[in-house]
Automatic annotation (TrEMBL):
Cellular-component GO terms for this entry: Golgi membrane
GO biological process: cell wall organization; pectin biosynthetic process
Pathway field: Glycan metabolism; pectin biosynthesis
Protein name in the entry: Hexosyltransferase
SUPFAM superfamilies according to UniProt: Nucleotide-diphospho-sugar transferases
Annotated family: Belongs to the glycosyltransferase 8 family.
Xref: Pfam families: Glyco_transf_8
Membrane topology: Single-pass type II membrane protein
Record-annotated membrane-spanning stretches: 45-68
Primary location class: Golgi
Entry EC number(s): 2.4.1.-
Species, as recorded: Cucumis melo
């Protein structure tokens, strides 16, 4: 059996027991090449060898690619075997190919093939065939078993790739880590990086209701810098903005150092607070602790499920991977339900996630009349006269569960977190936060049967009758999803705020290159720390 390989791929494949033909072919080639060699001067041998040494790897790669391409072009490797191995245009082997195809099809009816019927490699298969003189049917069965094994391997590799991709979304990139360390160092050595924020003459603005207060909970310095500078650059009256950035204890010094040394506009007030600066009452403290513990237990349960299960990375399971991300354990992430307690002196805030870019003036968002509701949000994608399927409560909550079906309407539209305006005064008059707690507890006690994995569900429940729908152009989300969502240029440009919701954050390597530029535009690449940490465009 021989493969005849040319630059365009496998030309033909013949199986024969006699060697006469091939020896004849082999004989003829040295003769003609000796004749031509004489004509070639010795001086040209070296360039020839050089050219060959360059071209041969190329041919090999070309061949390898052809094999890969043909394997990728078909849904099941079994369907492909016919044309990959036996191109129909070669007359001599076409009968063989037909016969073999029939045998493969016949072997489909003979039930499943055990893996032990397979052989490790194609070479092994051919050797077996020749030495044991097996019939066509045995050959077909073995080929099938081999392809089956390969298919399993490909599937498992795909699953692993999926997990790796998600793991990549969980880690803190080296550049960001470096930025935090360098800025913390700067805080220690540079008095300017420790300067009071805001400057003493502006402190009164922090609680002044005449200013527009924007709240950000984050431990990502670079992301916070992008949100703040994009909001300032697109603001008509930047000096009316007051940013309140809440971060954790370890990020406090780098965050402070950044904003103390990098102000886009000196008239804009930025306040940085670490969680350790809040002095909550014993009651709030214990409730926050409770909440975190429940989130941890829920996380743990999903994690144990995940370890034990054989995953199929579509739909449900993908969502479980999202739930396992570290952000689902992060206190900052869950603290948004305690915003009224975080800012006891404010009655209204605009709340932004750290993975957004502001593209319009935020003042009209601030000015929206919520009509007595607690908060304004964009409904999650609107299709004609209602919300799109997959964007309703029924998609998030388990309506087979009596407690859910008796409390909620499955057709109610869900909304988006990340760009919201909150009336904290109205919020304080409700029991939204305790309702949230109760649903968390219910879910844990019911064995996580109340909702499909995800962080939005308990908020959907707690805020049920308190949401005021705002114009969809305020918030275009899902720029970080996989596969990347395709947005028209107009939609992206018209959006007041774009949101990289999903695992593919723009600061990660896996971030989608099509939209990363929207974010990169607001990163100060001339900053010395960003340069030193090799955070690149
Ligand atoms: C929240 O308050 C409403 C009325 O103010 C009451 O009907 C409801 O039972 C309360 N829910 C919880 C969980 O306390
Ligand atoms: C939904 O609730 C039903 C009824 O309690 C339960 O049997 C089912 O397992 C739940 N589904 C999920 C996905 O948890
Ligand atoms: C970028 O960083 C440099 C150096 O830190 C600073 O001088 C400059 O003002 C910054 N530019 C913007 C737009 O923030």
């Amino acid at each position: 059996m021989k493969f005849y390989i040319s630059t365009t791929g496998i030309k033909r494949l013949t199986i024969s027991n006699s060697n006469s033909n091939s020896t004849a072919a082999l004989k003829s080639s040295p003769l003609s090449s000796t004749a031509s060699l004489r004509r070639i001067s010795t001086r040209s041998i070296f360039p020839l060898l050089l050219t060959l040494s360059i071209l041969l790897p190329f041919f090999f790669l070309r061949f390898a690619f052809l094999l890969l391409e043909s394997a990728a072009a078909c849904s099941s490797s079994l369907d492909c075997s016919g044309w990959t191995l036996f191109p129909a245009n070669h007359h001599a082997s076409s009968r063989l190919s037909e016969e073999l195809s029939r045998a493969i099809v016949d072997s489909k009816d003979s039930g499943t093939v055990g893996v032990e019927d397979g052989v490790a490699s194609f070479n092994q298969l051919v050797k077996d065939m020749i030495s044991k003189r097996q019939d066509m049917r045995a050959f077909a069965l073995k080929t099938k078993a081999m392809l089956h094994t390969m298919e399993q391997k490909v599937k498992s590799a795909r699953n692993r790739e999926s997990v790796y991709w998600y793991l990549a979304s969980h880690g803190v990139p080296k550049g960001l880590h470096c930025l935090s360390l360098k800025l913390a160092e700067e805080y220690a050595v540079n008095a300017k990086a420790r300067a009071r924020l805001p400057q003493p003459e502006y402190v009164s603005r922090l609680t002044d209701p005449l200013f527009r207060h924007v709240v950000l909970l984050t431990d990502n310095v670079l992301a916070a810098s992008v949100v703040v500078s994009s909001a300032i650059r697109n603001s008509v009256e930047p000096h009316k903005l007051v940013f309140h950035i809440v971060t954790d204890k370890k990020t406090y010094t780098p965050m402070h150092a950044w904003f103390a040394t990098n102000s886009v506009d000196d008239s804009v007030v930025v306040e940085i607070k670490g969680l350790h600066h809040f002095e909550w009452s014993e009651d709030v403290n214990s409730r926050v602790k409770d909440m975190l513990e429940i989130h941890r237990l829920i996380w743990k349960r999903y994690y144990d499920d995940f370890k034990g299960a054989n995953f199929d990375f579509d739909g449900e399971d993908k969502r479980k991977l999202d739930v396992l991300s570290p952000s689902s354990l992060s206190l900052l992430n869950h603290l948004r339900i305690y915003v009224p307690e975080l800012f006891p002196d404010l009655n209204k805030i605009v709340f932004l996630d750290d993975d957004v870019v502001v593209q319009h003036d935020l003042s009209s968002l601030w000015d929206i009349n919520l009509g007595g509701n607690v908060f304004g949000a964009v409904l999650d994608s609107w299709c004609g006269d209602g919300c799109c399927s997959g964007r309703k409560y029924s998609h998030y909550l388990n309506f087979s569960y009596p407690l859910i079906s008796s409390n909620f309407d499955p057709d109610r539209c869900t909304w988006l977190y990340g760009v919201n305006v909150f009336d904290l005064e109205a919020w304080r008059k409700t029991n939204i936060t305790s309702t949230y707690h109760q649903w968390l507890k219910h879910n844990l006690n019911s064995g996580l049967a109340l909702w499909i994995p995800g962080e939005l569900a308990p908020s959907l429940m707690a805020f049920k009758d308190h949401m005021y729908p705002i114009d969809p152009s305020w918030h275009v989300a899902r720029l970080g999803e996989r596969p990347p969502q395709i947005f028209s240029k107009e939609i992206l440009e018209d959006a007041a705020v774009v949101h990289f919701s999903g695992p593919a954050k723009p600061w990660l390597e896996i971030g989608s290159p099509e939209v990363r530029n929207i974010w990169n535009k607001h990163v100060n690449f001339s900053n010395k720390f960003i340069k030193r940490c090799r955070i690149m465009e």
